[in-house]
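Figure S7 source data.
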Amino acid sequence: MAIISSNIDDNEFPLRKKELRLVDSKIIPEEKRNHKINLARPVTFREFIGQEQLKSSLRIAIDASIYRKEPLEHTLLYGQPGLGKTTLAFLIAHEMKTKCRIATAPAIERPRDIVGLLLGLKEGEILFIDEIHRLNRLTEELLYSAMEDFRLDLTMGANRGARCRTINLPRFTLIGATTKLASISSPLRDRFGISQKIEFYNNDELKQIILNFARLINLNLDDEASHNLSRISRGTPRIALRLLRRVRDYAQVVTKTNVISTNLVREALNSFQIDEKGLDSLDRQYLSFLKQNNNIPIGLDSIAAGLGDDSSMLEFVVEPYLMRIGFLMRTPRGRLLTDLGKNYIDSNNDNF
Ligand code: ADP
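Tokens for the predicted adenosine-5'-diphosphate complex:
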């Protein structure tokens, strides 16, 4: 069984070879296609675990729009991959009793792509654009009048023969999702009436998400097993659900059972080379590299060169979790292992 799967977006991390990780929050092809996984998407606010603050703000905005019989204001959702932005877009559509049409910014290449999407919308529908920070400038400019006045201002022809044409659009809601708020231009950002951050989940919330999914796929998971899985899921539902599916594979193939105990979780994760802290081999290589540097701060580019990896991949995928568990510090002079990080490596040295 391939332990680490195709979860790196080649466009964002172009140098990285096809080495794939279970504990990466980016979506993998299996998760795009799998009907059962998509069924796991919560469709009501009650089923959507955690994010209480965000849910209550959205609830008020949705109820107010329903009361005024207007579409919801354009909404920007930002946060790390796998935290529930797409799920929330569907959930909002469900609550507004309308349809949600999905697009990703890199796929909207030419002006006619966005024009087609906008002209295909009906009154009150939602257009969800994922990775909205990656829209090109022309597309973005077309969106300004569409968002503000529900109008498309198109220039037909070129040079002297150029004419302007205005097309009215139905009133719609744009939901933009991004992992990089700072990369969105301010004219675009200012056109969103609602802007909400999605936070990482705590262990209790992840445990609840894991238990709900286990019920859906008929797994009998004990309390400690679900707690252990939640602990290593990096605050991210997508990772939690992926780890659970891999543990289920292991249980069904190796022990021929649907009953998942703590021991079985440990065995399965060991077989995927994920340790009790939730670190995989790439995390460990990264930490060992810093350790070899004898506690002198080291720049990201040097680490990337040393490991043969892409620096943005390390910065956005590997480092955030190592910092959250207190193993790594980013200083102005470079990256440094903390005492906790050093102890971890010393006590696991044999395994590297
Ligand atoms: P994003 O769009 O932010 O990358 P998704 O909406 O695709 O993330 O969510 C990833 C997975 O995690 C989905 O399978 C979804 O069902 C699940 N999920 C996300 N947030 C929650 C939540 N709050 N409660 C339950 N499941 C969730």
